[in-house]
Structure formats: C-alpha cells, structure tokens
Specification:
heterotrimer, A mainly alpha (91), B mainly alpha (116), C mainly alpha (157), B: 116 residues, mainly alpha, Helix Hairpins, elongated, C: 157 residues
C-alpha cells in the first residue's frame, strides 16, 4: 500500500518535470542578457583579464565565491571531526 | 514540443532517474549515487541556460574576430554548484561508513532504531 | 590488501604523477588567460594525489603525509582568500585595487579585442587563484586520506 502511494507520487513528479522541460523557451536565445552583455564588453577594460568567466567568479561576484569557500571548509572540518571520533572509539 | 529543446529534456531526465534511484533502492551507497545524479542534472540545466546559437567561449585569448559569445554568468554559478555537490557527497559517504561500522549492514530498512 | 596494486601500476604511477601535478599548477596559474582557474586546477592536483593513494595503498603513504598538516594548509588558503577581499576596503569589499594600476599584477594596459594573453595583468585575480587552488588541493587530499585510513582500520580488527 505504501509502495503504491510512493509510486504514484513519483510518476506525478516525473511527468511534471518532463512537461516543464518540453515547454520551455527555445534553446539558444536567452531572454534577459543585458547584464552579461555588459560583462563581456567591459571585462578587459575594468578587470584586465582575458577570461570573462574567471572575472565573473572572482571580481563581479566574489561574494558567492566566499560562500563556496566556507562550504568547502565546513565539509573538510566535518569529515575530519567524524573520523577522529571513530579512532577514539576503538583506542 | 520543439525538437531543439533536447538539452532541457535530457537534464530533466537525469533528475527523474536520480529521484527514482533514491526512492526505490535499498543499499545506502545507491542512495548516495541517486543524490549525485540529481546534482548532475541540475548542473547540466544551468549550463544550457546560457547558450547563444553560434557562440564561442567567452575568452579573448586568440578568439576569432567578431563572433558572438555565450553568457558567462551561468558557468560561474555551475562552478559553485559543483563544489557544493562535492562537499555534500563527502559528508554523506562519511556517514555511510559510520553506519556500516555501527550496525554491520548497509540496508536502509534495518537501520531504523534510534538507540545509542 | 594494504599494499596497493600490481607492479605495473606502481611503475607507471611513479612516472606519471609528477607530470599531473605540474599540469595542475599550470591550469591554476593561467586562470585569467585560458579556461581554468583555482577550482579546476585544484581538482587536477587532487586527482594526482588520489592516484598515488590508490596505487600504493594506505600502508605506502601512512608515514609520509599527515592529515592535520594538510588541514592547516587549507586554513591558510581560506584566510588568504579572505584577506585578499579586504585589500580594497576603501571603496568596497572585494574591490579589485591592483587592476590597471602599474604595481604587482596591473602592468601594461590590455589591448582590447582578441590578443595573445598578457600574464602581468588582472589585479588581485591571479593571487585569488593561488589561494583557492591551495585550498581545494589540500582540502580534497585531507578528505581522501582520512576516509581511507579510517575505513581500513575497521577491517584489520
């Protein structure tokens, strides 16, 4: 009985996702590209780098990269703390 | 239904396969594989949002003259998302090792007791 | 079980892992000119380290590498990235103070349009690439080593 409910819910979610994917805007024409046009045109003058993606990651949106560095730090600390407890369990 | 929409349909199919895997499988490692599949589908969807027809990579080193460039912002967001997926998978696998050590089995239906 | 893989794999690993580390450093260093940067290059170097671990087993690298030293290096990388954000605090947080300024990485003004890249440009971008590359390298290496040694110890009971 429970398995039938889960199966119906999964079919509903799957059908919804596929229907949404087939009725999206045409592939290859972004709707709002004003900000990215400014980034592409002004990267070499303002930042001085040839790579627009690196300029976006570290200069125009550097605050998001700070959040990502924090997540990576938290993951490393979490894994090391968990395995320290395992080593103390058997010693 | 446009035949050019195929990249969006593939990304949605990856997400659907991932949801099926972590709903209907019993092994704990297969659950982690299902979560990783969902994250891969989302990253693919983010990258295909920023494509312009006939565009080249947004890099000026040795670029051919006067061509359209694809949008750089979705690629930057995908970088962040990949690293966060790595952090999630590492912690999930550490918990799987911990559970196997404590219970002796990796079956999800047998690890239900909340005792110490 | 702890001795790794066969002798063919170990010989080829000894020949190849230096090349992989140098290639990873190249990807980190030229992040502002070619595709790449801190995260991508850090992943390449970490995969070279994982190749070492798989080929030689846990017993082969246990005496040589310390997980706590790697974690300290990762903390230094994170603090360096945060300090580079405070360099231009007079105008804004994460302001690119060294770009087009004539000092450390703000050398000649870049010619607009398509050009073969100039290394001495980009402001704080190459320094941030190094900080993030160090962080990702040592972070992933610490995770992989701790999980391998922690999981192996339960099998030898």
């Amino acid at each position: 009985m429970r398995k039938a409910v889960i199966l119906v819910a999964f079919l509903f979610v799957g059908a919804f996702l596929l229907l949404a994917a087939t009725s999206m805007r045409p592939f290859g024409e972004p709707t709002f590209a004003g900000m990215d046009d400014h980034f592409i045109a002004e990267t070499q003058a303002e930042v001085g780098a040839n790579n627009a993606v690196t300029a976006v990651v570290f200069d125009y949106r550097g605050f998001d990269t700070l959040g990502e560095a924090t997540v990576l730090f938290a993951a490393v600390v979490g894994v090391l703390a968990l395995f320290r407890r395992l080593r103390e369990d058997e010693a | 239904m446009n035949i050019g929409n195929l990249p969006f349909v593939v990304a949605a199919l990856l997400v659907v396969f991932g949801i099926y895997t972590f709903l209907f499988k019993r092994n704990l490692v297969k659950l982690v594989i299902g979560v990783s599949l969902v994250e891969t589908g989302v990253n693919l969807f983010l990258v295909t949002l920023g494509y312009r027809t006939g565009g080249i990579a947004p890099i000026y080193t040795f670029a051919p003259q006067a061509q359209r460039m694809v949008l750089p912002t979705p690629q930057a967001l995908t970088l962040t998302s990949i690293v966060i997926g790595l952090a999630t998978t590492a912690l999930l696998l550490s918990f799987a090792v911990f559970i196997h050590r404590h219970y002796g089995t990796l079956d999800v239906r047998k690890v239900k007791e909340l005792q110490g | 079980m702890n001795s790794g893989m066969s002798i063919i794999v170990r010989t080829i690993t000894r020949l190849v892992y230096g090349l992989a580390i140098v290639f990873g450093f190249y990807v980190i260093m030229h992040g502002h000119l070619t595709p790449g940067g801190g995260f991508q290059g850090g992943a390449v170097v970490a995969s070279a380290f994982a190749l070492l671990l798989v080929a030689f087993g846990a017993a082969g690298v246990k005496g040589k590498l310390n997980a706590h030293l790697l974690q300290s290096l990762e903390e230094i990388g994170a603090l360096a990235f945060l300090a580079l954000g405070f360099v231009g605090i007079g105008t804004a947080f994460f302001y690119n103070l060294l770009a087009n300024s004539g000092s450390l990485f703000g050398g000649p003004v870049l010619p607009l349009g398509s050009n073969p890249g100039v290394f001495n440009a980009g402001g704080t971008l190459p320094l941030m690439n190094w900080a993030v590359g160090l962080k990702v390298m040592t972070g992933i290496a610490a995770i992989v080593i701790v999980m391998l040694i922690g999981a192996r110890k339960e099998e030898t009971e």
